[in-house]
Amino acid sequence: MKKLLSMAVIAAIGTVSYGADTLEEAFSSGKLSGQVRVFYIDRDYDGGVTLHRSAIAAGGHLKYETAPYYGFSLGTAFYTTNGFGIGSDNLPGASLDPTLFGENEEGYTILGEAYLKYTYKNSAFKAGRQRLDTPMAGSDDARMIPNLFEAYLFTNTDLKDTTLIAAHVTKFAAGTFSNAYKDFTETKNESDKALALTAGYGANNKSGEFIDMGEYAIGKETDGVSIAAVKYSGVKNLTLQAWDYYAHDIMNIVYLQGDYAIPIGSVKMKTSLQYIHESDTGDSLAGDFDSDYIGAKVGAKVGNVSGYVAYSTTGSDSNNPLGSSIASPWGGMPAFTQGMVTRHQFFADTDAWKVAGNYNFQNMGINANATLYYCNFDVGENNPYDTGKAWTAKESGFDIKYYPKGIQNLQLRFRGNFPRDFKPGIDWDEYRFIVNYNF
Questions:
Q1: What is the total count of domains within the chain?
Q2: Looking at the predicted structure, is the pLDDT value of residue 238 above 60?
Q3: Per the confidence metrics, is the pTM higher than 0.85?
């Protein structure tokens, strides 16, 4: 087998003649990129929980990728977050917000990307640690360090207007956002478990460590997650995509989405539909799953103003609230109706809707845009988070992005979210100020 693989590599090299001419040139002509990030967060609880927490951190990532040499290139990236000793004693609030850090609310550095990539004509293969952004497994870059993966990824665009994707993912390194959720492998709390799994995270809140996909999701090792997908845009104004995630001995996830653009004069409209189905597979290590989610969105853009309305609904099983919910243990969060922090749309027995509007200030000579949104989640009593109790959770918020003209690639971002009855009686006001400088 090894001999056959070696012969295949030699044959492939012999058919490729682009990129650097020597290994030395491949490294000297490589690309250095990265991001510097400073993040401040402040959350003040009210109602059933009274707690004020905040944190500030600085970090980002530094990446280097060689130029291709006979189609082959190497890439590596370090990610870091640091608190520099600034704690709750010199910040507003009584405690440190954990979502900017790793274990024990401490900074850390991780070799987040380390891969070999091979490109030939319309095909590309990438193996190793890398960043993935797919509907049900993604980076979810909401705090300091995103989710990262160890995977084998193949893409091909030989068919006109079609992208084919095949991947196998073996390990997952949760980003700092995972620390928003408790480790239910320790607490054995079914409510914590349901909240984490439906909000995009798994069995534990470990961050900065590549661990087995099953171990992270449910605390049990598995053979990883195999992915197959197709994207098609061969019909004017229509884009279709279909994904299948086979999480060995856990579940199979089917994700479908269609987007259709409808230009009407100066108005650019778009309608979108999405569907998710989950069913347990193999040894059913996460329990029995048979769940459905349907979402729809209608958006429009006129000049500098855009907006959309969205609706979603899930199925219900009074005997299995978690198994009739949508679990997304590896950072995937494609829902049209999700809030900035409230992600209850994946709970079983839940109808959700969202309205959002955006204004671009470029016509005023200002490189900025602002978004306002409001979400409503009608959670039925067969939900897995507070089973037996029905309530309505709400979230409003804003997101302002500003790009100073004098400093290229600098983004200043101000965000706020204001959930009410996240769980009955739990409210908070949260503000985030983020500086991103890309190079």
A1: 1
A2: yes
A3: yes
